[in-house]
Specification:
The chain is an alpha/beta fold. The chain contains 24 helices and 14 strands. The protein has helices at about 1-20, 50, 55-70, 90-100, 130-150, 165-175, 185, 190-215, 215-225, 230-240, 240-245, 250-260, 265-290, 300-315, 350-365, 380-390, 425-445, 450-470, 485, 495-510, 530-540, 540-550, 555-575, 580-605; strands spanning about 30, 40-45, 75-80, 85-90, 115-120, 155-160, 295-300, 320, 330, 340-345, 370-375, 400-405, 410, 480. A hairpin with a 5-residue loop joins strand 8 and strand 9. The model is unreliable at about 415-420 (pLDDT under 50).
Amino acid sequence: MQILNEIQNGIKDALLSEYNHTIPVESVLISQTRKEFTGDYTIVVFPFVKALKSNPVEIGNTLGKYVVENNNSITDFNVVKGFLNFSLSPEYWKGQLAEISSNMDFGSHPKNGKKVMVEFSSPNTNKPLHLGHIRNILLGWSCSQILEKAGYEVIKTQIINDRGIAICKSMLAWQLYGNGDTPKSTNIKGDLFVGKYYVLFDQKLKEEYSEWQSSEKGKEVYASSHKENQSEENFFKAYKNTYFNQYSILGNKAKDMLLSWEAKDDTIRNLWMMMNSWVYDGFEETYKKLGVSFDKLYYESDTYLLGKKIVEQGLNSGTFYSEDDGSVWIDLEDAGMDKKLILRSDGTSVYITQDIGTAQVRNNDFGVDRMVYVVGDEQDYHFKVLFQIMKRLGEPYADDMHHLSYGMIDLPTGKMKSREGTVVDADDLVKEVIEEARNSSAERGEIGEMDKVEQEDILRKIGLAALKFMIIKIQPKKRMIFDPKESVDMQGQTGPYVQYAYVRIKAVLRKYNQNEVGSYEAYTKPNEFEMALLKEIVEYPSLIKDAAENLDPSSIANYSYNLAKTYHRFFHEVRILNAESEPAKAFRLELSKVVARVMQGCMELLGIEMPEKM
C-alpha cells in the first residue's frame, strides 16, 4: 500500500533531518490505529528512544510534525506514550475509493515469473474421500487460488496413492468376499464401494487374530514374549502388526498380492485397474461437487519405480546404505532424526521411496520454484525426512520444498477411523450441510417464492459456503471440530453470514438507477462507518500477499467475515438510498459496490460462490 511506504519513508527522512540518524525503512513499524485512539495509522516510536537519547513523546512530536509538513495526504498527528498516530485527509480516502473502483483487478499482484506446485487431496484408492480429505482439499485449493492472485504461476496436482499393501487389502477382500459385485450392480458410488472392502478386510483380520490368540501358537508366543506384569490384552494389542507380518493368513495373502503386483502379474494387475477405475469415478464426482480440479495427476504406481532408480544412485554415491537382509536405509541422526528405511528387504518400496521419485519427476516436468505439500500433521516427520533426503541427493529444488501441515478435523461425536468404518463420507457431509441450509432457510422463509431450480441452486451455494468457510477459517495447524448445524448460523462467523452481507449490498444496488446518481466529489467528510469500510478495503492487496507467503487461507476467511460485519454495521447506521445529499448517496453506493466486489473476490479465493439472493 503506497501510503504506508510514504509514512515509513517520511519517518526515515525525519530521523535523518531532525536527528541525523539513519535507519533502514523496513525497521519502521506501522499498523492501523486502534479504534480507541484518533488516527488511521500508527508508528511505534520506542525502537528509536535509545539511539536518540530522548523520551518517546518528544520524539513522536518531532517526527509527526515533520511528516505532516511534508506529505499532503496526512492532515494531523497525535502522540500517545510511545505511539505516533497519523490521520489521513478525506481527499486521500476519496481518492482511494475512486482508484479501487476503477481497478477491476484490485487485489491482484503482477506476475512474478515464479512457479509453485501445490499438491493436495492425494487420496488412497482403498477408501472414499472423507471429512479429513475435505479439509486437505479446501486448504490446497484456496492456497492455489491465493498464490495465483499473488502473482505466481500455480500448478495444482495430486499424487494418487494407487498401490501398496493398503490397496491390496481392499483388492483381496473383494476377491474373497465380493461375489462379483460391482458399483453398478449394487448402486453404490465407486469409492464407497471399494472402501467397504477395506473395512471388511480389517474386520476379517480382527476375527482371525482373535482366534489365533487362543490357539496353541498364540499362547506360546504370549508366554515367551510378553513382559512381566503385561496382560494378554495389552500384549496382543501391541503385537498386532507383528502378527500381520509373521503369522496372519490374510496378511500373507495381501503381501503376496503386493509382490505379484510389483511383478506385473496380469491377473492382479487387471483386478487392480478395475477396482481403481471404480474409485476414480467416485473421486471425480466428489471433486465436481466441491468445485475443484487439478492440472496434473501423478500416480504412485508410476513414480515408485523412479524412486527405486534414485535409491540405486544413492547407494552408489553413499547417501544410502544396505543392511545384511538387503533392506536400504539412510542415517539422518546427524540432522536430529533417526535411521530411515528406504526399501524393504524384499525389494518393495515404502512411501518415502515414491515421494523421492515423485519430487524428481515433477521438477523434470515443470521446473517449479517451489513445491507445497498439503498433508496432515501426522506426517510432519515424514516430510522432514523427505526434504533432508532430497538435500543430500543434491536436488536443486530441495530448499524450496514446503509442508503445509494441518491439524486433524473431528466431529462433535469424536475422532474418525478409516479401518473401522467410522469416517464421515465427503458426499454425505456435502448433502448434510445443504440440508442444514434448507432447514435454516425454511425457518426464515426467505426463498419460498423462488422457483424450485433457483431455490436448489441457492441452497447448494449456502450449504457449500457453510462447509468451506467453517473449515478454512481455522488456522491450518489447529485441530478442529466441524459442526454442520453451527456452520449455517446466519448470525455467527460463517460463510452464510458473509453471503448475506453480499446479498444485502446487491439488493441495495438493484434499487437505484445508476445513471441518476451523480458525483461524490462534493462529499467532503466520510463518517466513521464509511472510514471503517475504506480502511478494511485498502488492506486487501497486502492481505493477499501475506496469505500467499504464509500459506494461510484462514486470514482471507477472517478478513471477509470482518468486512461483512463492518458493512452490516454501516448498513444499520448510515442512510444510503435516502442519504442527506446526492454526493453522500453517490459515495455510499460506490463504496457498497467496491465492498461487494472485494467480498466476492475473497470468497472466490476460498472456493465459495456468492448468491444474488437468499
